Amino acid sequence: MRRILFTYIALLSVLHSFAQNTEIRYLSGTGNDNTVDWQFYCTEGRNSGKWTTIPVPSCWELQGFGKYNYGFNKDSAKGKEKGLYKYTFKVPSDWKNKVVNIVFEGSMTDTDVKINGKVAGAKHQGSFYVFKHDISKLLKYGKDNLLEVTVAKHSDNKSVNEAERKADFWIFGGIFRPVYLEMLPQQHIDNVAVNAKANGDIDANVFLSKNNKATEIRTQLFSLDGRQIGSATNDKIGVGDTIASIKTSFKNIKQWTPETPDLYNVVFTLVQNGNVLHTVSKRIGFRTVEVKERDGIYVNGVKVKMKGVNRHSFWPTSGRATSKGISIADVLLMKEMNMNAVRMSHYPPDGHFLDVCDSLGLFVMDELAGWHGHYDTPTGKKLLKEMFDNDENHPSIIFWANGNEGGHNLELDPYFRQWDIQHRPVIHPWQVFSGFDTQHYRDFDYGIGNYMHGHNIVMPTEFLHGMYDGGHGAGLYDYWEEMWRNPICAGGFLWVFADEGVVRTDKGGIIDTDKEHAPDGIVGPYHEKEGSFFTIKEVWSPIFFERKDITPAFDGSLKIENRYYFTNVNQCSLQWKLQKLGGVNDQANLSSKSGTIAAPDIKPSEKGSLKIDLPADWQNYDVLYVTAKDPFSREIFTWSFKITLPSKTADNIVKKDGSINVEIEKSDSLYIVNAATVQLTFSRNTGLLKEVKNDKGIIPFNNGPIVDEGATNFAGFTDTVEGDNIVIRSTFDRKQSYNTLEWTIYPSGWIKMKVNYFPAAYLTDVVGVNFSFPEYAMKSVKYMGDGPYRVWKNRMKGTQFGVWEKEYNNTATGEVPFVYPEFKGYYANMYWCKFFTSSQNFTVITENEDLFLRLFTPKVSKDPYQNFVPVFPGGDISFMQGISAIGTKTQKPLTTGVMAQKNIFYDYEKEKDRALAITLYFDFTGK
């Protein structure tokens, strides 16, 4: 009963306190999904020179006004483009004698504000910062008030343009974040800076209004569901004090980490002689950040590495105007990729994005704007203070960044330390500074030979710069394995999360990435997942599987490593599934078996194994899938382990016997072979397939096999009858015809091709054979192999082994229409493929392990840097034993790691038994 009474009294106290909360009334909407129309006049460009309406918040270019500008271009109309806004609003009569601020969360760029024709405050310069004006004396209480805002797209302050507008991103104009009124009591708490430590201690600076007459500050902690944690503390303050330092402590709290994002509300109540004057609640997480020189970053005493990405605040239809829904979607996608960190590039984000990072769990590097230029010191100091006042209490923020790539005003560095009660590290992205080496886009060889073997903590704030389909996942495995193993490396941040493709309302609604400047994302403008998305998901999985080939001796044990920092593997859940994949013409829903796996007790950073209790008939299945889910039941990744081999699959599918004898006809230059319903024409000189025909017509698959890279020097052909089969084979000659070709035609109409060949050189970009087929005739494919995304030599992770069906498309990654997965390109571990064409279908099966299927040549997007250089063989459809890597925007393939090196073949002697071999079976019967 006493407990109930105390709880009731505490609840009454809390309710009374919250009655004195700050009151918020929005004048605009809250995001791009919730807007309010204001009157609007644009001075230059489209739809200028007339009063109309515009939704607020928004960027006016996306609403049909002014001119689009990418940052490398000059500002529109030589800086004359401005937006004039008007809005009429009422203020409650009972707000009189209160403090009323008008708050702008973000407007681009110079912003002048008037209330009822009178200037509300100094012009605000700087786009991404929350600013406010006290308009208490300008308002008509209980009556209509006129708000007038002038926003200049180009700043009068040269340093603002240098920091924000001469940059590698879209430049917009407008009030792009919410606007609201903030009502406070005359005596109030201006702001609170909180340091909630991992041990439960709280240090706080409470900033008070200048007319303060309060006598104490009460501090109380609550869980998010409203439960009171511990007892309130009361700190005495003196009349006229404008800052109060609070120290208190709470027991048995849960620590905040990206893996366990536990949050609390801490409530500060301003009291005068027992009367509550004002109450402020701040959402916090208990965690401690420590940088140990020449060692690393420690959170709550645990050394951590950043699996991070850079992120713009952006949406295609609204530019920089976003919403909490977009923030949630962005963070969930990052978490899905097993990321634990995000860098705000290159300006502070919306407050709701930081809220979501707090609640879902991401480390954040928050950044003062400055791309390659920086703010002058007076402007930068003011904007830095605004950034601190609004962002500093987020537990997700563990770094501050003072600008980017030379956009660092060194005179501002001391203020980070002075104003941050948590003393978080300050980073100069792209520089060696304060014990961190954050250089961007270091080559893999340089990184391993020097970059990772100095004395500074290595943490590139940008690496593996994506562009179209290059970068991101391409090269990541090599980089990350070195980063993971190297004790002085603290991880890094990929560039960049999403393609910055904007809807051009001046060009019929097309998506524009400003050519090659902005298609740099892991996901498309509308969050379309590219192939690298899944590569990153596997490479950054916190559960790491040691490579394992499944053989008949497999006992169900798999070795794993726990790459979490705060989570035991036994907190996760694991499932297994055995799946039969069947043959070419089998339907889906083939037999499978599944079960759970006991999650082993493996502590963070330790290794162990898991044991799968498989059924006795497990070898009758084609593939074993293992799925891991985190403690929140989100999939970490699903790995596939092949059970069957291509040779066994081929034996089960290929039909050799038939009721009609194979017949061969020879002319001066051709072999014409008839088997069942199939007629094949080969060159007697080269052995190449010239024509395929069956009783339904011609299948335009021909002109192969062409060896690439190598000599197609098959010669000296003979034909023999071997059993029921016709065999056409070339003669080996070490000097002239060292590559050999053998065709076997079966009575069933199936054909076997065996090529023994030597690559042209010690190092080659591609290795294999190809054929011709008209791309216009291809409709779709169904294949057994890794999918559904294509691969590069340096981006092999992220796929699953299975049977995949893919419709033809001509998508170029990062370009309209952003349809994924792409169709054209390389696919790994092909067992068989059925081609569906506009005329007839045909099937190809292999006996080879590790064979790549090549489907045509993808469009190579414009690359002025000449770094992509992916290599494709000739012809149209290929079967490869070696494929090429792809580069990034800033690096050629060879500099992205070991996996990107060319294919190596050591034998120069052309000994017949040392050749590479490819065996294929073809079914041209049209079934």
TrEMBL record:
Cofactor(s) needed by this chain: Ca(2+)
Pfam families named in the record: Bgal_small_N, Glyco_hydro_2, Glyco_hydro_2_C, Glyco_hydro_2_N, LacZ_4
Residue ranges constituting the Beta-galactosidase domain according to the UniProt record: 558-619
Alphabetized SUPFAM superfamilies for the sequence: (Trans)glycosidases, beta-Galactosidase/glucuronidase domain, Galactose mutarotase-like, Galactose-binding domain-like
Residue span(s) of domain Beta galactosidase small chain/: 728-844
Keyword Iron tagged: no
Segments forming domain Glycoside hydrolase family 2 immunoglobulin-like beta-sandwich: 188-287
GO molecular function terms attached to this record: hydrolase activity
Keywords in alphabetical order: Calcium, Glycosidase, Hydrolase, Signal
Enzyme's top EC category: hydrolase
EC number(s) recorded for this UniProt protein: 3.2.1.23
Source organism superkingdom: Bacteria
Domain spans labelled Glycoside hydrolase family 2 catalytic: 289-506
Family note: Belongs to the glycosyl hydrolase 2 family.
Complex formation: Monomer.
PANTHER family in the cross-refs: BETA-GALACTOSIDASE (PTHR46323:SF2)
Protein known as: beta-galactosidase
Source taxonomy: Bacteria, Pseudomonadati, Bacteroidota, Chitinophagia, Chitinophagales
